[in-house]
């Protein structure tokens, strides 16, 4: 087996094992659990160099199960919240937890824990990637383009908050559920976006993040309490975006915008899946921001080519979206869409409402769009001025190159 | 193949005053036994029972609350397994880790009507 595949297997399995062991030992012992699982995998990777087991996944499960007693000992010596151990027969109950049906339950508990509203928004993402998805600190730091020490701090703080707020390792029910589920969807959406809009050079990292978000969303969809129209809409949105993930960058690792992507290479099966899921998402009238975002990207996908995109329809969807989510970023999108349909007055109307600072680190997109606006109006000087600002503000190298090309064109 | 239940009866570790180390050594054997049956593909499930007992007895439905410490023996749990016959289950039950504590495995066949 390739190292890459083993990494992948470890990663997925790690989340499962940590979740099951947390059911046994509780969130208070999370750190010990994670260390134990990590250690199991380390030993496995050394052992597997010589010979690969017939069923690697079963091997890992067994190894984690054998770890249960080690963890008991460890917790005992550290005198931390030790679960009661009275009888050998208890192993029967522990054994049951390692069954497939129970694994899904444990993972769902961990998802709800990691996305708990009591945790800081940024901590949730890092903690989820570590605990559910089994990313290492280093991998999280490179995926989120954040320093490793910062990631460690975030995860440490998340663990501390879980203790302080006495967060339970449970799937929320009743009145509590909708709010908690919203928080989960938000985290998955952010993880997906980190992947999709990633400033990361390596496609692999982007795919891992998008894939993880989709995998977790699928776990939600398998639970009857979590399969709401919002969850379906989010999954459809992810399918539509993922369908064109491969075409976002060309072989020279240059970013391609929607106009220049090879539409023939968009993944048809993912689009079909997205369509089917979208049908599920609109079975009732509760529309979330994910519904409108999915509708927007579906509209792009429907168009046989860039020129035939139905910009008016897209603008309408954005208007709906803006009503429930009045953000500067949506205003910018509406301005860009208006530019596409050559409605300069409308574009300007939206530009005027934007305070670039509200866009935070994406402010460069505002300046780039303004540059396009002036370029379309043949005001080269102004267009150059704005692309200059965009170039100064952008941090992502791929996007920087993309803007440089625009700049060169304007200078010609 | 028939379905059998192995019922575990005896004293709880804590009631016997076993140390943590002794308990863990026994847990290890329990795990090994469970894994062995699982790998043989004969394990169909099982449950462990908590040591709290509420008894309702007789005409007057007399209620008594007990713990494992109050009774001589307690049913601690069971495994459901597939086996050819009682002898085969007896063989499997050889690995039960707690005979030395005076504990018991009771083997019972699951009743099936197949007419």
From TrEMBL, chain A:
GO terms for biological process: DNA-templated transcription initiation. Pfam families: DUF6596 (PF20239), Sigma70_r2 (PF04542), Sigma70_r4_2 (PF08281). Residues 180-281 form the DUF6596 domain. One of its GO terms (molecular function) is sigma factor activity. Residues 9-75 form the RNA polymerase sigma-70 region domain. Residues 110-161 form the RNA polymerase sigma factor 70 region 4 type domain. NCBIfam families: sigma70-ECF. This is Sigma factor, ECF subfamily protein. It comes from Tenacibaculum holothuriorum.
Automatic annotation (TrEMBL), chain B:
Residues 16-113 form the YCII-related domain. Transmembrane segments: none annotated. Signal peptide: none annotated. It holds the Pfam family YCII. InterPro entries: Dimeric_a/b-barrel, YCII. Belongs to the YciI family. This is DGPFAETKE domain protein. It comes from Tenacibaculum holothuriorum.
């Amino acid at each position: 087996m390739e190292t890459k595949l083993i990494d992948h297997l470890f990663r997925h399995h790690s989340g499962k094992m940590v979740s099951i062991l947390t059911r046994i030992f509780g969130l208070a012992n999370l750190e010990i659990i994670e260390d134990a699982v990590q250690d199991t995998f380390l030993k496995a990777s050394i052992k597997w160099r010589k010979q690969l087991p017939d069923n690697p996944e079963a091997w890992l499960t067994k190894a984690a199960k054998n770890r249960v007693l080690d963890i008991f000992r460890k917790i005992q010596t550290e005198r931390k919240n030790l679960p009661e151990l009275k009888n050998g027969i208890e192993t029967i109950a522990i054994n049951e937890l390692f069954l497939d049906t129970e694994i899904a339950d444990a993972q769902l508990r961990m998802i709800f824990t990691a996305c708990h509203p009591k945790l800081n928004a940024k901590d949730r993402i890092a903690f989820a990637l570590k605990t559910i998805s089994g990313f290492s600190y280093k991998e999280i730091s490179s995926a989120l383009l954040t320093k490793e020490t910062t990631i460690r701090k975030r995860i440490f703080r998340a663990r501390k908050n879980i203790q302080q707020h006495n967060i339970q390792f449970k799937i929320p029910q009743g009145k509590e559920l909708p709010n908690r589920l919203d928080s989960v969807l938000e985290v998955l959406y952010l993880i997906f976006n980190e992947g999709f809009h990633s400033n990361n050079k390596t496609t692999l990292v982007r795919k891992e993040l998008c894939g993880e978000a989709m995998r977790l969303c699928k776990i939600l969809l398998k639970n009857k309490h979590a399969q709401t129209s919002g969850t379906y809409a989010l999954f459809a949105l992810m399918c539509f975006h993922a369908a064109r993930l491969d075409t976002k960058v060309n072989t020279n690792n240059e970013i391609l915008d929607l106009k220049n992507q090879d539409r023939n290479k968009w993944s048809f099966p993912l689009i079909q899946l997205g369509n089917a899921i979208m049908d599920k998402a609109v079975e009732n009238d509760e529309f979330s921001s994910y519904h409108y975002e999915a509708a927007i990207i579906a509209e792009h996908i429907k168009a046989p080519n860039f020129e035939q995109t139905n910009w008016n329809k897209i603008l309408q969807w954005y208007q709906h979206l803006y009503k429930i989510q009045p953000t500067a970023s949506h205003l910018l999108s509406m301005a860009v869409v208006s530019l596409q349909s050559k409605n300069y007055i409308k574009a300007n109307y939206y530009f005027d409402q934007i305070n670039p600072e509200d866009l935070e680190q994406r402010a460069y997109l505002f300046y780039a769009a303004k540059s396009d606006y002036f370029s379309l109006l043949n005001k080269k000087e102004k267009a150059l001025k704005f692309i200059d600002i965009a170039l100064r503000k952008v941090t992502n190298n791929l996007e920087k190159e993309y803007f440089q090309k625009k700049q060169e064109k304007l200078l010609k | 193949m028939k379905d059998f239940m192995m019922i575990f009866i005896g004293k709880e570790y804590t009631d016997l005053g076993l140390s943590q180390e002794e308990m863990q050594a026994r847990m290890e054997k329990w795990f090994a036994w469970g894994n062995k049956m699982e790998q043989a593909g004969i394990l169909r499930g099982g449950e462990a029972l908590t040591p709290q007992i509420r008894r309702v007895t007789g005409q007057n439905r007399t209620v008594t609350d007990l713990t494992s410490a109050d009774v001589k023996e307690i049913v601690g749990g069971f495994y459901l397994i597939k086996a050819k016959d009682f002898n085969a289950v007896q063989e499997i039950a050889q690995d039960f880790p707690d005979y030395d504590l005076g504990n018991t495995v009771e083997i019972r066949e699951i009743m099936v009507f197949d007419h």
